[in-house]
Amino acid sequence: MDYIRVTKDNIQSEHICCAISNNNDVQVASKKAWLSERFDDGLVFLKSVERGKCFIEYIPAENAWIPIEADGYMYIDCLWVSGSLKGHGYSNDLLGECIADSKAKGKKGLCILSSEKKKPFLADPKFLRHKGFEVCDESECGIQLWYLPFEKDAPKPQFKPCARTPHTDAKGYVLYYTSQCPFNAKYVPIVEQTAKQQGVAFKAIHLQTKKDAQNAPTPVTNYALFFDGSFLTNEQMNDKRFLKLISR
């Protein structure tokens, strides 16, 4: 498999894997705009030449849009291989490229979000454990921070207190999200409209700066849904899924 690094120079002509469509699609436009603003912060987006979900996205941890303390580490936003591309070792390839690049840049190691058991939109803990990652911190909501140090004495990354104890004072449903995930551009407005039609209290908080994301009351910021102050899920909702959720 050959891979392409998406940059400012080619982003308009390359597909971005997680949302495969043309640049007029709101999801593609949102994701490409977000990526374009992150390249100067050291973000790397490496993808397969084939059209499909096969890519890795990572950034120096001090510029990551989550509440962690991991100076000197590289944070993996997303490592995603699925569909017909799964099962061919491409995840190993992509992670290997990330490791080599991070070592060349003098990083202390890698870190990434996962959980004890596989959760949607989080890295597979079985794969991480197989590759030598270990849990270095855990939020009260069960989302874990994993790390792969390049040296034995490297300090462990950790969540900020706001992420370790996720909570919001607002009643009803409260969603924190960023434009890192392209699906949000399409589905957040749909869920907002669905909640309005059902007479359900719902507030969406769009995290639009690194500072806001790094101080958000949740360990995962690309999608974090709360209910009556407690963290509920990081799984993206469409109208049908949200209706099923509120019917419980």
Describe the structure.
It is a single chain. A 7-stranded mixed beta sheet has the order 1-2-3-5-6-8-7. A 4-stranded mixed beta sheet has the order 11-10-12-13, with helices on one face. The model has no long low-confidence stretch (mean pLDDT 95). The chain is of the alpha+beta class and 248 residues long. Helix content is 27%, strand content 27%. The termini are far apart. It folds into 2 domains: 158 residues, Aminopeptidase; 84 residues, Glutaredoxin (3-Layer(aba) Sandwich). A hairpin with a 5-residue loop joins β2 and β3. The protein contains 7 helices and 13 strands.
Q: Rg to the nearest angstrom?
A: 18 Å
Q: How many separate domains make up the residues?
A: 2
Low-confidence stretches are none
Structural class: alpha+beta
**CATH topology term of the largest domain:** Aminopeptidase
Give the termini distance in whole angstroms: 45 Å
CATH class descriptor name of the largest domain? Alpha Beta
Which term fits the overall shape?
globular
Q: Report the count of strand segments.
A: 13
Describe the main β-sheet briefly: 7 strands, mixed
Given the structure, what is the number of helices?
A: 7
- CATH-level-2 architecture of the largest domain: 3-Layer(aba) Sandwich
State mean pLDDT (0 to 100 scale). 95
| Fraction of helical residues | 25-40%
Looking at this structure, what is the CATH superfamily of the largest domain? Gcn5-related N-acetyltransferase (GNAT)
Tell me the strand order in the biggest sheet. Answer: 1-2-3-5-6-8-7
Strand content: 25-35%
Summarize the helix and strand pattern as letters: EHEEEEHEHEEEHEHEHEEH
